[in-house]
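Q: For a teaching session next week I want to show students how multiple molecules come together into a single three-dimensional assembly. I've collected the sequence lines for a complex. Could you give me the predicted structure tokens for the whole thing so I can convert them for display?
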Amino acid sequence: MNACIRASILSSTVVAVIGLLAWTSPAVRAEDSPADKAIARERAKRERQAQIARELVPALELNRGQARRLVPILEQAAKLHLEAYEQQAQFLPEIIEAFGEFAREDSLNQGFTREVERRTARLNHRAKEIRDKLMEDIAALEKQATAVLSASQRERLESWSNGGQRPLRGKARGARNTSPSRLRSARKARQEAVGERLRAAREGLTKLHRQTYGHAELGSVGRFLLHPAAAEPLCKLAGVRPSQTLLAAARVSEYGTSDYPVSLRDEQQAEVLRLRGEINNWNLINGLHLTRDQIDRIVALYAAAVPNGRAGQTSGQRATGVPRFLLTSLERSVEQVMNPGQRQVVAEYAACLIPPKNLKDPVRVGQASDRSHHERWLERARKTSGPRLVALVDRALHAEAKHLGDLSPAERQKRKALLLKTARQVAKMSDADFELNKAELAESIAPPNRKNELQGEIAVLQRQRGLPGRVAGFMLKPDFIEQLRQRGQQLAAGVVQQEQTDLAKGPQAENCEKGCAIDGKDGKKPKRDR
Amino acid sequence: MQAEPLHRREFLATVGRCAGGACVACGLGMLPGTAWADPPRWTREIDFYDQLPGNKIQCFVCPLDCVLEDGETCFCRTRTNVGGKLYTRAYENPCILRVDPIEKLPLNHFRPGTQTLTLGVGGCNLRCVYCQNWQQSQKKPDELKTFKMTARDVVTAAKKKKLDTIAFSYTEPVAFLEYAKDIAIAAKKARLKVVVATAAFVKPEPLLDFARYVDAFVIALKGFDEEFYHRALGVELAPVLTAIETLKKESKCWIELTNLLVPTYNDDPGQIAKMVAWVHDKLGDDVPLHFARFVPMYKLTNLPRTPVQTLEAACAAGRQAGLRYVYTSNIAPHEGNNTFCAVCGEAVVQRLGFKVLENTLRKGTCSCCRHKLPGVWT
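A: Of course. Below is the structure for the complete assembly, covering every listed component.
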């Protein structure tokens, strides 16, 4: 049979399988509460992954030899999945408790108690570590599994991933009719300057975000072929019995364990996501310091735009609740309610769990650029010279690459030269000169903030295309508006006057008792007769 | 040749010797980052003190009137009796040296949008239990890492950075009054402006002597209750009020006031009402008043931050008492950061924290109604 025809039949089968699964997956019903919707989304995601995994094995037309080579890799992946499930069983309830307390304190806008803040930071960090480790381990297995596939199988899987993932739950934007002539004109429309630049900027930002905050990215092989649900069809094809580990992993991924059923896991994951969203919203609300009047106006504008108080069309992954054609004009109206300072805060906002505590600057909302790290580096570099300085610079470049993405060799060399030059320059400065200039010097050695540049570019391009921007993205959502409403009620309740501290009982300031000295020649406090 | 195994006792002894050596090196300042500050050099005598019999002295800089025997140091930690003469330890040794926006002081009616060379020296004659800079203020100058800067060096540094204002802040300038005065004199010669952030627990005479060389004061009126001043700050309120009134009547300095609202300590609406009434009656309705948000610090880490409603209520009380320029501070973005024309209500200076976003004043005049706002704008 002609290889091209076989290839096109195979890719069509793959796409059809995915499309069918997407269409038949349990949908989120409009009448469900937000919590139910979130749980249903988690369940749907999990079930969809498992179904795709089961159907992908026959769709890829693997042969017995490939299946036999994949089974041991899948076994290792299954162990990782089991371990991860066990960790989640222990971890998720704790993180829900911690995030819940944190969200409660956040809603009061009076800062956080030390214990709550530390616990939240610790658990958040641990959750990220666990997630990153799992992704890295599976990514390593994915490489091995990908090597088992033939070149054409890989190519078909990749083209499905690039084109197919976006339309998994419907059609891609700008490609509503997939007939060849419409596709060409839709592609052409997308290739118009603004649209193309916008897409490129968004992709760049996503990639940068993943590099900075995310984990190793898994492809379709890692996500579906190494999913425990693929064990049964793969073992059947290989002509081997699935091991206890594979059976257990498949069972756990579908049903969970007797102590920790998968429905409970779905609920808890949905709750963690909800709490993260709530905390992000509170952080932004706290940072904006909207007045009561501003809050009332924004809430009224939103209520007028949302038909019958229900969510309208979806926009991307999350519902804004506002019909798309009204979103941009609503955003403009909300921006008019805010003052320039507040608009600037939203423009620079980066969602984070724990707002930074830069006491030098009262604008402490999201992770705005803070150069204190670079100032400390310069202080260290001042005291270092020779090969140790070069090693210090190399370590700094390595850390930057890890968080901000790799530089080309030429860029790296240029950056290294800048850091070395600045370090040698500050070493020659007097302490006073360094102290006065360190903020500027830190700014000069800070790596280019590609994230800010891309965000700025995206904001401009979106505006050019008449698309909604960051105000819409962060603020014009049902959950944000609801929390804003709560903040309005808090402000309406007025000052909650607390009982004044009994000054005689609190920490006391040292008093002079007129005529005293703090110490004498011997360094001790002198005794006086009064 | 095979090395002999190290026995546990020998290992512990070696570690102990190394640790001891490190401590000695640390004490001698040989290890990086551990150099002690220079000891005081007794070069600058205090301008306001009396000599008493038996090599005693009495300091008259602040109302504490410390009486010191030979070798003793004042309550402010910066003045020491050396053989019957009172010298300052806080001279040419600032521990804080920064370039800051002027709004940080906070000064909103003095050349908005400009920057200052700000310095502070260790020591303070107050003992505020919530001090925001306690690591420097509650230590002697020679107990801190400092920079060697003469008055001339400070002026040169300001000119090099193209800054035309020098500020004394972070710690209490009354504690390093002599150094501040010498810098201010040098600054005046170089046509630089001088601004001071102080708690004003100082006697009128030294204050006015210093004020001759100062362009603006930001005075921290921390509360309006004697018990609060005594128990939470370690001093008295009455001398502070006297100092503020004296400065207003007898100097030409621009004055702004600031009050840090500490939840359950000094945020009682009754106290605030009395304070704003006093400000209005004694200083006039054009004196800007800033209500700042408290951040848990020093001995009051158990308290929450000041609720925004409390700050807004305090501002409302100020306006109700007739004050025309009432601000919120240490909280941004907030409408309270902006300057509004008292006549037409136009936002003439829009700020985001310490940053000026827009300034529509023309030499201090509102571009809408031509009302001249009080302050120093150029």
